[in-house]
Amino acid sequence: xxxxxxxxxxxxxxxxxxxxxxxxxxxxxxxxxxxxxxxxxxxxxxxxxxxxxxxxxxxxxxxxxxxxxxxxxxxxxxxxxxxxxxxxxxxxxxxxxxxxxxxxxxxxxxxxxxxxxxxxxxxxxxxxxxxxxxxxxxxxxxxxxxxxxxxxxxxxxxxxxxxxxxxxxxxxxxxxxxxxxxxxxxxxxxxxxxxxxxxxxxxxxxxxxxxxxxxxxxxxxxxxxxxxxxxxxxxxxxxxxxxxxxxxxxxxxxxxxxxxxxxxxxxxxxxxxxxxxxxxxxxxxxxxxxxxxxxxxxxxxxxxxxxxxxxxxxxxxxxxxxxxxxxxxxxxxxxxxxxxxxxxxxxxxxxxxxxxxxxxxxxxxxxxxxxxxxxxxxxxxxxxxxxxxxxxxxxxxxxxxxxxxxxxxxxxxxxxxxxxxxxxxxxxxxxxxxxxxxxxxxxxxxxxxxxxxxxxxxxxxxxxxxxxxxxxxxxxxxxxxxxxxxxxxxxx
Length: 492
Ligand code: ADP
Ligand code: MG
Description:
Layout: E1 10-11, E2 13-15, E3 18-20, E4 27-32, E5 37-43, H1 47-63, H2 71-87, H3 89-100, H4 104-124, E6 131-133, E7 139-147, E8 150-154, H5 160-174, E9 177-181, H6 188-194, H7 197-200, E10 207-209, H8 214-223, E11 229-233, H9 236-247, E12 252-256, E13 262-265, H10 271-283, E14 295-299, H11 300-314, H12 335-351, E15 353-356, E16 373-376, H13 383-386, E17 393-399, H14 402-410, E18 417-421, H15 425-434, E19 439-442, E20 461-462, H16 467-472, E21 475-483
Parallel strand pairs: 1-5, 8-9, 8-11, 9-10, 11-12, 13-14, 13-18, 14-17, 16-17, 18-19
Antiparallel strand pairs: 2-3, 4-5, 6-7, 7-21, 12-20, 15-16
Helix pairs in contact: 1-8, 2-4, 2-5, 3-4, 3-6, 4-5, 10-11
Bound molecules: adenosine-5'-diphosphate and magnesium ion (MG).
Adenosine-5'-diphosphate binds near residues 215, 222 and 235.
């Protein structure tokens, strides 16, 4: 089979089991955000390429060996994909880090999680069950589960291959075929991964990777009449457009649209663990995390001491070249994101008090590095407390009591995640019930497992990924009525 085109620096798209140029012949550059240098050129897909990919996925679904293969056979292919990711983790992790700037150790975790995700859904392929429905004795009533068809999967740049895995694995387990569109900033690992699909036993057309920009490649994919379902992770702004575009053909849609998640600290929390949890919650992956704990709510008796301790510990965060193993914070993904985050830092300076950071981190003068930044005395109405920044910017907000913590925490259009830190189990569990978010952590923030559901309340989106919920989103339900009564209906 063909693999990535000659040289190391031009990547073609993967359509119908082959690596191909875009039909226009155009490419676009992708960058190493730690050096600002061009890392590769990538095929620039548009509507015509999307049409070719969807045709391939449609044909593979309708006629194909995949949707009609046994669940056991599909499961085994997914196990092989997991093995391949594990075997090639050094290469994939390095490519991920060079393309998106995250520290290499974190990329290695992402690859491990991606492999686990394929393995999990490999096991689930054989556990999709139908029902016998309890109807009167003159009929047998069944519910059957069937794959939904062609899935369009649009992913962001913060966990490029992992977000692709979250979408591909359940879709493939269900028997769907896929057109994946990686983010234009970070398409490289998905393309490298695609080169191993044939070896894993994925037939041509079952997984297609179209590279390109949101407007020119993403939008035609969402609108395509032969696509049955759209799974999107990205910004709220684009999520709203996706729902509107999908309405014309009444596609099934699932959305994960980020958040402005509260990380809530009561005075009785373990103080050292709390400081770590506050910093980890908002600074991991340079803050480019949809569930980032970007609003840090702190109870007044510990507020001052808490902000001081955060500032002190932030000084120890090692910012630097992401390929170095002790680096804890790399550059932001792109110039666009760098400018956006720096702009929010300026906005913050006009709305609140700055305790740490607040600008570019020089790191030799190259790369999109920004300082881990802490604002305090932030009003929950401030822009830096309401808008998702997607960078290492913490907004610390004091609160008086439990009722106020709950009110402020829930006063946001988003509802992806929330965390509460306390040694009082009554209080902590009252918050678990009161917080309006799809993921709640108690005395931690960020870890999640493939076995557990992931997704948001309110404008953080709808539908759930991972766990048994994840595969549900790729299944239709068919009711079957079987008449057991040999008499004519006798109505006429
Ligand atoms: P960000 O602004 O942080 O890059 P986006 O929501 O714009 O986040 O991007 C997430 C994904 O959505 C990317 O793969 C991007 O190409 C895609 N995308 C952006 N705009 C559109 C659009 N109008 N239609 C479909 N996909 C889009
Ligand atoms: Mg965008």
